[in-house]
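Give me the fold.
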Amino acid sequence: MGKIVSLETERLIMRPTSHDDEAFLLELMNSPKFLQYIGDRNLKTIEEVSAYIDSKFRAQYDRLGFSNFTLIRKADGIKIGSCGLYDREGLDGLDLGYALLPNFEGSGFAYEAARALSKVAYQQLGIELLLAITTKDNKASQKLLEKLGFEYAKDINLPEDPTTLMLFEHRKVRKL
């Protein structure tokens, strides 16, 4: 399996998250919907974000060749969100996740990024099954997952997290 260096869609450049993204990630991970629906990562300083990039994103990228990708709008070069494939404890498969800054929600960017990353997962990485998790009250994420072709599988709890989450699954479509 090779490393995903970057991806491009009609409106986005998706590149592996790096230390150049520290200030952006600090803003994203402390935005109201991120805190409500994804959770508080307790990242309050640039130094904490830097350590998080190394321990979570960079470590997985070095090990698997993919992790979190920063979404950059082509039109103006602005960082608008993130999308990634995560090897998450408690899940038997890779978790497709996404988050956008509030000003960029509802414009199809999450769908565009998640769709592109899913295609690469199936076509280039040989992945057969993608998972996605969301909270029960995150109706927008549930709707997006269904639009991407994910199906609700069951409710789950991740290790050391009391929040009950909805698990969605999407299998690679095989051509006969």
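The beta strands are 7-8, 12-16, 68-73, 79-86, 94-100, 129-135, 151-156, 165-171.
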